[in-house]
Design brief:
single chain, about 475 residues, mainly beta, two-stranded antiparallel ribbon, 4 helices, 23 strands, about 5% helix, about 45% strand
Length: about 475
């Protein structure tokens, strides 16, 4: 249908990112075999610039002998677990995403999306004083991630050497701060095929709202992100089911959407099943919703001109699983092998996989994939667009998102299999290597060493254009 083709709007990532799509792109489907209009095609392209900022904190056993500013707020003094600020991170990603949409039959569409990451740069630095002149700025003297040379303190007292001078130590870094070796990533991303169908269409039946169902398959086509390359692919198959509904009134079209995504690791990804007491293999599923309204202050259907504004709010739930995190590259750069000798002393910051597990992964350097705790993302979006003719549409959109606070490293030490109710350590009589989680990294997963992301803000600017034939 001609009008349906005119309304087909480009805004990128239809299936997986709900808050970047207006009513038109969520519910309108490119047609085929429709009277004198046998075949429709829409070609879209979008440019996205995303800025992600966050604070990284680390669990810390409070000790007044150390000068971390969070100790003063500890509810029970010495031995209390608090979150000590450590880092500030920033990531800027620029992406160009072409997409083709083909009409297959009445209200049935197939689309192909090919994202290309132009530039993906990141920065990791010590946290400052937060604008408070009386606040504490983190540096190597108080950092637990990249500690500098310092006095040895035991039970709040300085340890003196034979010469009567304080003993000094130079602990290992979990990873270097600032990170000089973080890669600038770019290249072909993970392509997506999507099939969309509208069982009800308001243009065919004005008494009904338009209802659209979609199925998307995000394919692992990009080079898989690893600590020693510049790839941008995640190495998973993303399978998405979604449903959207919209109803057009005189100058407004409110809409809503629900969707869910299941991730299946590809055979060559970093998400491996090492068996035994492994807790998670790949990323957890994601589910979300979005509500919004497209406002049309001016429209001339005869000339194919339409001016519109779009407003949307949405939220997504990310289940717990092993995944890429904000510190993936920093973690991967800091991974170092550990000795499997049970008598060997392992530095608290040496990042290696559980030396106690019965797996080929035991003692190997940490590759950067962590068990990420469940969290929510809330997002708001405003957009503006102009359909200048029957064949050209352009627009822009701004969005702001926030992730709730969550642990970036939260793997369990293992799973009880012998009925004792606990997972015994190597020193216990009932210790069993089969109970140990092979993906557990003591340096970041043990209580008192876990890392947490807070104050996350994500700003996105998008520009888009669509040609309709």
């Amino acid at each position: 249908m001609k009008r349906r083709r005119l309304r087909a709007m480009w805004l990128g990532l239809v299936v997986l990112v709900p808050c970047v799509a207006s009513a038109a792109v969520l519910t309108d489907v490119v047609d085929a075999a429709d009277g004198d209009d046998p075949f429709d095609v829409t070609a879209d392209v979008a440019y996205d610039r995303t800025l992600r900022r966050a604070k990284i904190t680390r669990e810390f056993v409070c000790d007044p002998a150390l000068t971390l500013d969070t100790c003063d707020s500890a509810p029970s003094g010495v031995g209390a677990l608090v979150f000590a600020k450590e880092l500030r991170i920033q990531r800027v990603t620029q992406t160009m995403t072409p997409r083709l949409r083909f009409g297959l039959f009445h209200d049935l569409e197939l689309s192909l999306e090919v994202p290309v990451v132009i530039d993906d740069t990141q920065e990791v630095r010590f946290a400052g004083n937060g604008g408070d002149p009386n606040g504490v700025a983190v540096d190597p003297t108080i950092s637990t991630i990249a500690p500098g040379e310092r006095d040895v303190v035991v039970d709040g007292r300085l340890v003196l050497g034979p010469d009567g001078q304080p003993l000094r130590e130079d602990p290992e870094n979990l990873f270097d701060v600032p990170q000089e070796a973080l890669p600038t990533r770019s290249g072909l991303g993970d392509m997506q095929l999507a099939l969309r169908w509208s069982p009800f269409n308001q243009e065919r039946d004005p008494a009904r709202a338009t209802w659209t169902l979609d199925f998307g398959w995000r394919m692992p086509t990009g080079e898989i992100m690893k600590g020693d390359n510049t790839g941008v692919g995640r190495g998973v198959h993303g399978l998405t089911l979604g449903t959207s509904i919209a109803r057009r009134f005189a100058h407004a079209e409110p809409y809503a959407r629900l969707d869910g995504t299941l991730f299946v690791p590809a055979s060559d990804s970093l998400f491996k099943d090492y068996r035994f007491a492994q807790e998670y293999v790949g990323p957890g599923p994601v589910a979300g919703f979005m509500v919004g309204t497209e406002v049309v202050p001016y429209e001339d259907p005869a000339r194919g001109i339409k001016l519109f504004f779009d407003f949307a709010l949405g939220a997504r739930y990310h289940a717990k699983g092993r995944d890429y995190s904000e510190l993936f590259d920093a973690f991967a750069n800091g991974g170092r092998a550990c000795s499997l000798d049970p008598s060997a002393t392992i530095d608290p910051n040496r990042a290696c996989y559980s030396v106690d597990s019965n797996s080929e992964l035991a003692g190997q350097p940490f590759d950067g994939i962590t068990t990420v705790e469940q969290f929510m993302t809330a997002e708001g979006r405003i957009g503006f667009g102009l359909q200048a003719s029957k064949h050209l549409r352009v627009g822009t959109a701004l969005s702001l998102a926030h992730d709730t606070e969550h642990f970036l490293s939260s793997a369990d030490v293992g799973r009880d299999t012998n009925g004792t109710g606990i997972v015994e350590s190597r020193a216990d009589a009932n210790w069993s290597a089969d109970e140990q989680n092979p993906t557990y990294v003591r340096a970041i997963d043990s209580v008192g060493r876990r890392l947490r992301v807070e104050e996350t803000t994500v700003f996105n600017v998008q520009m888009n254009a669509s040609l309709m034939f």
